[in-house]
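step=encode ok
step=design start
structure_in=
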């Protein structure tokens, strides 16, 4: 039987069943206007625990089936996870947040119903968002009115020119770092805090109450080599959080985005609104470390072109159009491959990462 569910409803039912079997405290946060959609939370361990391990799924909806599988697997093997610690360590809580973006997970979209990329939305909205002139200028070619040969030729010609001038990494960064000016565009970060963002802040305010330390593992797919796992940290390698992560995880598994940025000629995304960074900033009373746990699928160009087509179908075709559904399904299969070997590597990699993170959180560190 595949460890990865095929739909949001199946994933939610499996998650709730696994949590109940463990006697976890459960709470549901229904998405307003959608009776069957909710962000669910399961907690094991005492209220007010000084250390909290949080595993999240589905901030990008169409990646959520993979994160849900990781959460169910973790709940199913708690004895093995905690064997080295003689059971659930004292003063530790394990928290699972299932389907941060339930609408996107149910509809096979990265974005929310409002087309917001939630991992670009966790920002300080009292400060104006950054301008993204490169994406704004490219948008008519990225999401054209019609997807035809002439439009594709124009897009590729412009893209090839930018590649020649700046390189692939620079162009990919400008397309994916998040933008705040084109509501129907790719990687739109919104114009204010989304309901899902507010909900997650409220969930974690409760779940981290009393914590001295916390580790947030935010499950994602699509970045990296096929089947491999990466710790994508928004902090700099030399910052306290970065040094902690470097002690916890193998060096070949960590990528520090904040160590690059403009110092590298803008070759890396200048992303704002990342969830893990915002939660850390919202809880200065605790040492909160967080990262995106990424599992590679297919090449970045292939994934981006599928994202582009799915986004065009969403923006330009009617809700019931068969091409819209087909494009979403095609992208889903790239983000969460229906391949037994990839899914096996997903579970194995998650087990290794979570075990390393747990050892570091309880103060043992990773063997060197």
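sequence_out=
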């Amino acid at each position: 039987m595949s460890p990865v569910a095929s739909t949001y409803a199946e994933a939610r039912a499996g998650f709730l069943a696994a949590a109940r079997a463990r006697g976890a405290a459960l709470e549901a946060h229904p998405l307003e206007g959608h009776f069957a959609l909710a962000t669910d939370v399961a907690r094991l361990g005492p209220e007010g625990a000084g250390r909290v391990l949080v595993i999240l799924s589905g901030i990008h909806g169409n990646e959520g089936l993979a994160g849900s599988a990781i959460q169910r697997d973790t709940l199913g093997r708690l004895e093995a996870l905690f064997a080295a610690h003689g059971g659930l360590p004292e003063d530790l809580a394990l928290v699972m947040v299932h389907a941060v973006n339930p609408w996107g997970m149910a509809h096979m979209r990265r974005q929310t119903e409002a087309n917001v990329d939630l991992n670009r939305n966790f920002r300080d909205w009292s400060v104006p968002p950054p301008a993204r002139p490169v994406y704004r200028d490219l948008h008519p070619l990225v999401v054209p009115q019609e997807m035809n040969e002439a439009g594709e030729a124009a897009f590729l010609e412009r893209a090839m020119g930018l590649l020649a001038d700046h390189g692939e990494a620079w162009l990919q960064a400008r397309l994916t770092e998040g933008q705040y000016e084109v509501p129907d565009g790719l990687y739109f970060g919104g114009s204010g805090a989304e309901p899902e963002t507010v909900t997650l802040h409220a969930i974690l305010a409760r779940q981290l109450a009393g914590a001295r330390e916390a580790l947030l593992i935010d499950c994602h797919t699509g970045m990296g080599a096929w089947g491999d796992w990466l710790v994508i940290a928004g902090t700099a390698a030399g910052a306290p959080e970065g040094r902690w992560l470097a002690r916890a995880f193998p060096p070949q598994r960590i990528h520090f985005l904040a160590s690059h940025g403009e110092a590298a000629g803008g070759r890396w995304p200048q992303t704002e609104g990342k969830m893990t960074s915002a939660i850390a900033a919202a809880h200065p009373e605790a040492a909160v470390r967080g990262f995106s746990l990424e599992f590679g699928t297919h090449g970045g160009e292939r994934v981006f072109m599928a994202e582009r087509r799915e986004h065009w179908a969403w923006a330009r075709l009617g809700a019931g159009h068969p091409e819209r559904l087909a494009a979403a399904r095609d992208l889903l299969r790239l983000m969460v491959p229906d391949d037994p070997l990839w899914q096996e590597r997903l579970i194995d990699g998650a087990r290794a990462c979570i075990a390393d993170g747990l050892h570091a959180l309880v103060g043992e560190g990773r063997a060197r």
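step=design ok
step=annotate ok -> DSSP finds 13 helices and eight strands in the chain.
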